[in-house]
Please model this.
Amino acid sequence: MLYLNLCSRLTIEPKTGSKVVLDRISGAEVSKTVEMLGDKATVVVPRRYGDNTDKLKQFISVGDRVRLDLGYNDELNVEFEGYIREIESGFPMKLHLDDETFALRSTSFVKSWKTVKLKELLQYIAPGYEIDCHDATLGKYQIDNASALSVLRDLRQRYGFYSSLRGKKLVCKFKYEIAQSEVVHTYDFTKNVKKNSLKYRRKEDRKVKINAVSYSRDGKKITETVGSNEEYASVKTLSYLNKTAKELRELALAEYKRVCYDGFEGTVTGFGLPLTNAGDILKIVSPNEPEREGKYLIEGVTVRYGNAYYERVNKLGYQV
Model:
C-alpha cells in the first residue's frame, strides 16, 4: 500500500457555465457519521493553481455542485458528493463542502398540525425526495420559521428518529436501523492497519444505561430503563413504536447485552482502501491475539488525504 501512487480529482459544476475539473488537490478531509445528519468535507486547492486562484473564483461560487474522487494508481473512487458551502479567502484556497443537506439547510417553513404522520411531515419539508420512514403519528406538531434540517434534528431529539440522505432518498428511522449495513471490511493488524487508539475493555467495566421508549399511534409514550445507575454512566436511548412495557424491557435488556461486551472501543486507522464508511461493519483480525478478534459497527469515518498520505480513521461502535 505504501508504494502506490496517490491520485485525486475535484469536479465542480457551476450553476452557469462549463465544468471545472482540477486533476489534483493538495489536501482533503471528509467526515462521515451515523450520529449526525450530513457529511462534510474540506478541500485544499494546490499551489500549482495559485496563479489562477482569482480566475478560479470567477468561475465557482457557493451552491455549486462538487464531486471529490480519491484513489491510487489512477483508479479513482467517489469519496464525497455535495455542494460548496463556503469558499475560504486567502491562500491556499479552501473549499468547505456539505452533502445533500446543503439544500435542506437553506429552506424555511412555518406550519402547524393538530396531528400529523411522520411521512406527511417529511414530504412537506423535503419535496422531491423519496421518503423511507415508519408509519408513525407524531400528534401535534409545529414549525416556526425553521429549516428542513432543523426539523430533522428536532425529530431526532424528541422522537429518536435519525435521518440519512442517500442521494435523493431521505431515510428517517431509528438509529439501529439507520446504521444497519451488510458491507463488511477487514482490518488485519499485521497488514493494513496504520495505527490505532483502541482499548480492550471487559463488559463489567462498561457503565451503560439503556432507555427504551415506545410511542403509540396517539402520541403517548412509555419508557423502560435498564443498566447502570451510576452518575457518570453513558446513556443510550432507543425508540420504538407500539410496544408494551414487557416488550420494551426485553428490547432494552437485549441492547444492554449487546453494548456491554468484551471488546475494543476507540479508533483504528487504515489506508485509503478498503472504502470503509459510516454504518458499515469492520472485522478486526489480530493473529497475535485471536481472542480479541470481532466485528464492529463503524459509527464514523474521517478520510484524510494529502501529498503523502491517504487514510481512514474509523470510530468503532458496538460489537456486531
Remarks:
- Residues 245-259 form the longest helix (15 residues).
- The chain has four domains: 6-103, 107-175, 179-202+261-320, 207-260.
